[in-house]
Amino acid sequence: MSEVPWTEAATLGREDAHATWALAARMRLEELAGTYHATITSAELAEWVQERSRIRTRQQPRHWLGDVLYRTMQDNVDRREPFLASLCVDQSGRVASGYAGRVQFLRGGAEPADPDAHAASERLDCYRWFGATLPEGGGEPGPMPSAVAPRRTTSAAAGRSRAPRPAGTRAAPTPRVAKTDVMPKICDRCFMALPASGQCDNCD
Do 185 and 6 meet the contact criterion of CB atoms below 8 Å apart? Predict the structure, then answer.
């Protein structure tokens, strides 16, 4: 277990938390890109960046992970790299709904008509760029998510209903985000939280 105490994102502030998570996300995604056809789910990545940075939040990943991935995509554009965010998928292998819009905004041109096909091609570019061992012929995009599970339609989602709450009961109160009085020191090289010793386990 890490010796570095947790810091609440609400205490640190949105900008600093998201910027630190984006650095951690790039670290994990770049590591994955070194393995042919490797991917990670949004839930797994959200948990990993919090654990790695020791900055946590009680907000659901859908409220903040999109911005974190967008920051990694901006970084990829600056470095002239393929989008590492393409390696982040849901349980059925699909990229997030905002992926196509981010691609269009950052690269210009038309929005990808099929975000999943675009992401599959982008993932292959990532494996090539970041040194994965590829099969003879240079490899190929991974299996399309349509072969795994159909995309849920809006009408299907609208058809779901919640079970009624018994009369006389109240919904559980939303837990408050705890705050910490101690702000962690951040390594000026890898931007991860430092342990109590002040020496970065990642760099030293």
Answer: no
Write out the two tokens for 80: 């002239």
The CA distance from 201 to 204, in Å, is 6
Kindly state the tokens that stand for 175: 């837990």
- Can you spell out the DSSP letters for 56-69? E-SS-GGGTHHHHH
Q: What are the residue ranges spanned by the domains of the chain? A: 7-143
**Residue of 151, 24, 161 lying closest to 91 (CA atoms):** 151
Longest CA–CA separation in the chain, Å:
66
Q: What is the pLDDT of residue 90?
A: 95
List helix spans (H) across 59-174: 65-79, 99-107, 115-129, 154-159
Helix (H) or strand (E) holding 22: helix 14-32
CA angle, residues 133, 138, 144, in degrees to nearest 5: 95
Tokens of 168: 């006389």
Rounded Cα distance between 71 and 102, Å, is 10
Q: pLDDT tens, 46-104?
A: 999 999 999 999 999 999 999 999 999 999 999 999 999 999 999 999 999 899 999 99
- In 3D space, the residue among 2, 101, 94, 78 whose CA is nearest the CA of residue 42 turns out to be 94
